[in-house]
Amino acid sequence: xxxxxxxxxxxxxxxxxxxxxxxxxxxxxxxxxxxxxxxxxxxxxxxxxxxxxxxxxxxxxxxxxxxxxxxxxxxxxxxxxxxxxxxxxxxxxxxxxxxxxxxxxxxxxxxxxxxxxxxxxxxxxxxxxxxxxxxxxxxxxxxxxxxxxxxxxxxxxxxxxxxxxxxxxxxxxxxxxxxxxxxxxxxxxxxxxxxxxxxxxxxxxxxxxxxxxxxxxxxxxxxxxxxxxxxxxxxxxxxxxxxxxxxxxxxxxxxxxxxxxxxxxx
Length: 266
Hints:
Order of helices and strands: HHHEEHHHHHEEH
Family: Belongs to the TerC family.
InterPro entries: Integral_membrane_TerC (IPR005496)
Mean pLDDT: 78
Membrane topology: Multi-pass membrane protein
Structural class: mainly alpha
Keywords: Membrane, Transmembrane, Transmembrane helix
Strand content: under 5%
Strand order of the largest sheet: 1-2-3-4
Protein name: TerC family protein
């Protein structure tokens, strides 16, 4: 276990996944803040912290469930004809469905942020909250909606790293716990930074498109799909890490250029 967690693949997956979990959690923080701000001031921080801790437990439980389904790799139905071979398993179905969901979620989120950026915030603002328990329940509902893409991203980043699915599960849980702790400790600074640099969140959503596509190809690979005797191969995760690192490097250069321009004007 320790040898796996200290391997270069596991460390890269953990760093990338923690970063993506935080980026994907920004909207979550915004909506949790809106829900908490409807309470008296002395209850707001308690609602936020309790809500995030329960959200962490909720995500860990969902990770166990999804990880169990991913472990069901034995084919239960085989499609075979002159041009197509496909061995369906629950593992491939979950990965394929997850990939489609991430593609839909990321593209719809990008469209919504460009055309109606305050739509979700206005929806949450319109809901009435009268007590701490109501706020916590609403925070958990909000987190459940936002945790689906987070969990599928975790599965996409860790699937195939280790033959033992329990190792991948531990890695996913570590990333989720770290990201929630960081969000509890630095929620406001992170939110302000993202508000000042919205392209960071756009990058995160763009990465979801990559991960969604990777999940679909991985599902095809694990189900031994071949079309006209050409088998679908898995996409090495190194390509994904490079794309994310390169995009972040370019974003960092843009940030430095903007900062230098502002300092010269001042």
